[in-house]
Amino acid sequence: MSKTVATFGEQIRILREEARLSLREVAEQIGIDTSLLGKIERNDRQPTKEQIKLIAKFFKLDEKELLKEFISDQIAYKILEEEADLDTLKVAEMKIEYLKSKK
Amino acid sequence: MSKTVATFGEQIRILREEARLSLREVAEQIGIDTSLLGKIERNDRQPTKEQIKLIAKFFKLDEKELLKEFISDQIAYKILEEEADLDTLKVAEMKIEYLKSKK
DNA sequence: TCTATCAAGGACAATATTTGTCCAAAGGTA
DNA sequence: TACCTTTGGACAAATATTGTCCTTGATAGA
User: Fold this and answer.
1) CATH class of the A8-101 domain in this structure
2) pLDDT for the residue numbered A102
3) How far does the CA of A40 sit from the C1' of C16, in Å?
4) CA–CA distance, A92 with A82 (Å, rounded to integer)
5) Taking a C-beta distance cutoff of 8 angstroms, is the pair B16, B61 a contact?
6) What pLDDT is stored for residue B65 in this prediction?
7) Is A98 on the interface with B (CB under 8 A)?
8) Which of A42, A76, B61, B94 has the largest count of CB atoms under 10 Å?
9) Terminal CA-to-CA distance of chain A, rounded, Å?
10) Count of alpha carbons within 13 Å of B73, Cβ hemisphere only?
11) How many cross-chain Cβ pairs, A to B, lie less than 8 Å apart?
């Protein structure tokens, strides 16, 4: 019953495979290059907002939720690549509150 | 007694002002353009790793801590500019654990 | 074996973003 | 006025990212 965690790309790959569709089939439908979709699934290229929208539509996902998956991915990769420690996120959270409070 | 939250730029501006130094004086010492330092303080330009190192050295700060301030800033700004909600950070945290666990 | 289809990934031109610098303007102070 | 400071615009140069095309290797079916 626990929710599985996976990256943005992994999630859409899983959806695609569950639907038994090839990269080409999906890419064609949403109007992007096959290779590009493959790269997005492997987190080798970042999807644009427009592409996220198209993917959400295709798989009937909530666009906002999918965007959240993408942004959280970006943050996760940043932390890992900078080898920053987890509490960096706590600091970020405080700063968000702070920045919001000062209009 | 509560620790104050401020952005990377604001923090170094405060340090500089407490030391009663002008942008020019500090910029000259660390070897960067005066205008650039001003922009960094206003979060108008992002400092490079090298610049963070020089700033930390100048103000006798721990370089790692200052880098954390910078990265948390970047994350905070991303969340704000995407208008993502706070729990995006929680999702990111789970993904970090997940990505770390898969080597 | 031959033929298709698929996914992975390299290369690269086209684009987009970011940087650092120079300059001018505005404000303050003596 | 003269000087010093900060702000911010403009912009070329440097960097990073995108989307596309193409090759390779794997798998499967006839």
Assistant:
1) mainly alpha
2) 82
3) 19
4) 15
5) no
6) 96
7) yes
8) A76
9) 41
10) 21
11) 99
B92 in contact with A, Cβ within 8 Å: yes
Signed CA dihedral, A60, A9, A20, A37: sign only: positive
| Residue B102 pLDDT | 82
pLDDT value at position A3?
A: 64
- State whether B72 and A88 contact (CB < 8 Å): yes
B18-70 confidence digits (pLDDT tens): 999 999 999 999 999 999 999 999 999 999 999 999 999 999 999 999 999 99
**Which residues in chain A land under pLDDT 50?**
none
* Model confidence pLDDT, tens digit, residues B79-89: 999 999 999 99
Distance from C-alpha of B99 to C-alpha of B103, rounded to nearest angstrom:
7
Give dist(CA A44, CA A34) in Å, integer: 13
> Residue B89: which of A73, A85, A89 has the nearest Cβ?
A89
Nearest chain B alpha carbon to A80: B96
- Give residues with Cβ within 8 angstroms of A38, minimum separation 6: A23, A44
Domain ranges in chain A? Answer: 8-101
